[in-house]
Write a structure and sequence with these properties.
With 800 residues, the protein is α+β, with helices and mostly antiparallel strands. 48% of the residues lie in helices and 19% in strands. The protein folds into five domains: 120 residues, Alpha-Beta Plaits (2-Layer Sandwich); 221 residues, no CATH class; 87 residues, Calcium-transporting ATPase, cytoplasmic transduction domain A (Distorted Sandwich), CATH 2.70.150; 123 residues, 3-Layer(aba) Sandwich (Rossmann fold); 130 residues, Calcium-transporting ATPase, cytoplasmic domain N, CATH 3.40.1110. It has a seven-stranded mixed beta sheet, with helices on both faces. Strands 21-20-26-25-24-23-22 form a seven-stranded antiparallel beta sheet.
């Protein structure tokens, strides 16, 4: 649940740095609002998004954590921390970390470090220690969430026997039964349930009211009435009500805490995938080193049953890798020399030697965690509506309880005051702003976590909301629906001053090349070797496969949308599209390539065409099934391509796409997406390249696929991990399921309060029943949201 509004971003101003904080002591939706106010009141804080569902806050600004903690403590909350022991030599370095709140000396050259309870904070501490040292948990260290859960369980367990005694478990005929019941009620309400009253008092001092206020006022009023009745020697239900309310709310809080804990497992689950240490191979020997010490070029050994410590490339060995936790792929993937592997993948049979490509902090796994954390902190718009309602809910309920008492007192006859008191207590207790506050964020958090397990990373909870409104899916072709690894599949000789010859299938190209064509191919490879686009690699590979020696090149340049050129020996060589270099080429000759779904490259030497090459980029194995799955769900599917129209339509026929937009220049893609959305509604754009970035940003939701450029990934709202496009329909299913759960949760929350408050006000709901109903309302909302998180990837989509 977000409790701060996002201000419009100034494109000239870089975003404020963000600090994630785990907050302890939140018990309801109003608590999150109080936490946000406290954090935003700290000098240097720009904004704070607080999630009651996950117990975390994202604070934007430059305020130090110590100041944030002071504000939280003043408001009755705290930063959740862990306590570690480390070597004293690291003290100065550790104090520099933003997550470290305190460093205290211990005996034997050791220190005790209090650090925020976040995976990234614990990793930062470990990264500051020498290779041969490690941080260990202090003997008294217990995670804050576990402390809160244990405390809630103990209070719930204590409440049950005390409530049993307070309800008159000793037979009424036994002497002293009234004193026993009274004592049990006092201990239960004022002792075991003291947290409600302390937090309510702290909120009142700040001029606010929350869920604890309702429980505290209700139980204290009932306890006071019961105490008066006991002193008068009258047996009443007020003591029973106070005891049962406290017991049921405590049990409900414990169950709710257990259930909400499951919502926050996504990031922690990803953190557990990364091993702490790696087996580094160097100079013929192996040594164990912390993962954060690995650098690109290092060689590490991955034994069967262990996880890959860093993104890399297989140097030696073969194995089956389980990547299900990262990519959502259920079957292990066989890998061997040259294959890329991701940190966190689990090795099956066979050991691997892996060359590290990215350091730990730059791994896909770390980026996944960062995206999930950001998504949990960025709320959906519908959550803000529930926040506003929850923010005024408690004062309204307090007023309704007062009116209930006065109404019964005035109109209820001789026992109107007593009945009014019971009804007012029931109103206070039955009200549940927590259900309202949890309805949307619980569903969004569960949906974000499920998406991560499917191998889809979302930038914010609002992405699921926007996806649910999508009417069409626009796919880029090259590198998105295709593998992005084009290869030369045919060639045509081009004699000087004549028309091109017939197309000859290349298997390989060099088998039938004449001398002129061979020189042209070698020269083209020399020019393309200095270029970076995918077709350049295809030309170089063709020349290499043909056994040609690639000559040196001078003055090599690349012109986007045209091609590459340079001087090879004494010849001026240009390599580019047929449209740019051979606009007068026979149309039927070009149509042969178009019909086969092939693109055409022309090699020009000294301004005369010398060779034509036909290239093809094979579709991804999952593309056709993914497209058909999207269409079967009723979405319009559009193929957007910069290729010639004939080649693009041929690819569309293979993939089952009828709506083809081609040729589309890179500068036109965003404009074309805008036009498509204006005609047919919100769109999901799926792309990978630099030229897709504007279109990804223009679309309602932009999805970057595996291997996307940094520019495209930065412009996208979501990203695929892995090459399986089958997750696109899964993601659309998840968005629809999440929207259904949000609607269900809001209906449950609003419907519950709309039904129960009038019933309680008219005396139809006893306080003890009201307490149980209130606890069940929150549990039903969270439990309903957790249905989104069940299971991994399903062929038939996500159900809810």
């Amino acid at each position: 649940m977000s409790v701060s509004e996002h201000q419009a971003a100034d494109p000239e101003t870089p975003p404020a740095p963000a600090l994630d904080v785990a907050v302890s002591g939140m018990h309801c939706a109003a608590c999150a609002k109080s936490v946000a106010r406290a954090l935003e009141g700290v000098a240097g804080t720009k904004a704070a998004d607080v999630s009651f569902a996950t117990g975390r806050a994202r604070v934007r600004g430059t305020a130090p954590l110590s100041d944030l903690r002071g504000a939280l403590r003043a408001a009755g909350y705290d930063v959740a921390t862990r306590t570690l022991e480390a070597p004293a030599a690291a003290a100065a370095s550790l104090r520099e970390l933003p997550w470290v709140l305190g460093v205290r000396p211990l005996a034997d050259d050791r220190i005790e470090v209090e650090v925020a309870d976040l995976p990234e904070a614990l990793e930062a501490v470990r990264a500051r220690l020498p290779d041969d040292e490690s941080a260990t948990r202090a003997g008294h260290d217990v995670p804050a969430w576990r402390r809160d859960l244990v405390e809630a369980r103990l209070r719930a367990l204590l409440a049950i026997p005390l409530a049993w005694l307070a309800m008159g478990a000793p037979p009424l005929t036994l002497p002293g039964h009234g004193a026993i019941a009274l004592g049990a009620a006092l201990v239960l309400v004022l002792g075991v349930g003291s947290g409600f009253h302390l937090r309510a008092f702290a909120a009142a001092r700040r001029g606010r009211a929350d869920m604890d206020t309702l429980v505290s006022v209700g139980t204290l009023v009932a306890l006071g009435a019961g105490l008066v009745a006991h002193l008068r020697g009258v047996h009443g239900d007020q003591l029973h009500a106070a005891a049962m309310i406290t017991a049921l709310v405590l049990v409900g809080r414990w169950l709710e805490a257990r259930t909400r804990r499951q919502l926050g497992d996504a990031v922690e689950g990803l953190a557990r995938l990364e091993p702490d240490r790696a087996e580094l191979l160097r100079d013929g020997s192996a040594s164990s080193v912390p993962v954060h010490r690995l650098r690109p070029g290092d060689i590490v050994r991955v034994r069967p049953g262990t996880r890959v410590p860093a993104d890399g490339r297989v140097h030696a060995g073969t194995s089956d890798l389980d990547t299900s936790a990262l990519t959502g792929e259920s079957l292990p993937r066989e890998v061997g020399p040259g294959d890329e592997v991701l940190a966190g993948s689990l090795a099956g049979r066979g050991a691997l030697e892996v060359e590290v490509v990215h350091a730990a902090e730059d791994s896909v796994l770390r980026r996944m965690r960062a995206w999930v954390r950001e998504a949990e902190a960025r709320p959906a718009a519908v959550a803000r509506l529930a926040d506003r309602v929850a923010g005024v809910f408690v004062p309204i309920v307090l007023g309704l309880a007062a009116l209930t008492f006065v109404g019964w007192w005035v109109l209820g006859g001789s026992d109107g005051a007593t009945r009014g008191l019971v009804a007012a207590v029931a109103v206070l207790v039955v009200a549940c702003p927590c259900a309202l506050g949890l309805a949307t964020p619980a569903a969004i958090t569960a949906g974000v976590g499920r998406a991560a397990r499917l191998g889809v990373l979302l930038r914010g909870g609002d992405v699921l909301e926007h996806l649910a409104a999508v009417k069409q899916v626009v796919f880029d072709k090259t590198g998105t629906l295709t593998e992005g690894r084009p290869r030369i599949v045919a060639w045509a000789p081009w004699a000087r001053g004549e028309a091109p010859g017939p197309w000859l299938d290349a298997a390989p190209v060099g088998d039938a090349l004449d001398a002129r064509s061979a020189r042209a191919l070698a020269a083209a490879a020399a020019v393309e070797a200095a270029a970076s686009h995918p077709l350049a690699s295809a030309v170089v590979d063709a020349a290499t496969t043909a056994g040609l020696e690639i000559p040196p090149v001078e003055q090599a340049t690349t012109t986007p949308g045209v091609g590459a050129e340079g001087r090879v020996a004494s010849a001026r060589v240009r390599v580019g599209s047929a449209a740019a270099l051979a606009p007068d080429a026979p149309s039927d000759w070009l149509a042969q390539a178009d019909t086969a779904g092939r693109g055409v490259i022309v090699v020009e030497m000294d301004r005369k065409p010398a060779l034509a090459l036909a290239w093809q980029d094979a579709p991804r194995a999952s593309s056709r099934d993914a497209v058909q799955a999207v269409r079967s769900r009723g979405y319009r599917v559009v193929l957007l391509s910069g290729d010639r129209e004939g080649a693009a339509r041929a690819a569309g026929r293979v993939l089952g796409i009828d709506d083809v937009e081609a040729p589309v220049l890179p500068t036109e893609k965003a404009e074309r997406v805008r036009a498509l959305q204006g005609a047919a509604g919100p769109a999901l754009m799926v792309g990978d390249g630099v030229n897709d970035a504007p279109a990804l940003g223009e679309a309602t939701v932009g999805l970057a696929v595996e291997g996307a450029t940094d520019v495209a990934a930065a412009a996208a709202d979501a990203a695929l991990v892995g090459a399986d496009l089958g997750r696109v329909p899964d993601l659309l299913d998840l968005a629809q399921a999440t929207r259904r759960v949000i609607v269900q949760n809001l209906a449950l929350a609003f419907g519950y309060n709309a039904a129960m408050l009038p019933l309680a006000a008219f005396g139809q709901v006893p306080p003890r029943i009201a307490a149980g109903a209130m606890a069940l309302s929150s549990l039903s909302v969270v439990g309903n949201a957790l249905r989104l998180g069940r299971g991994g990837r399903r062929q038939q989509g996500v159900q809810a």
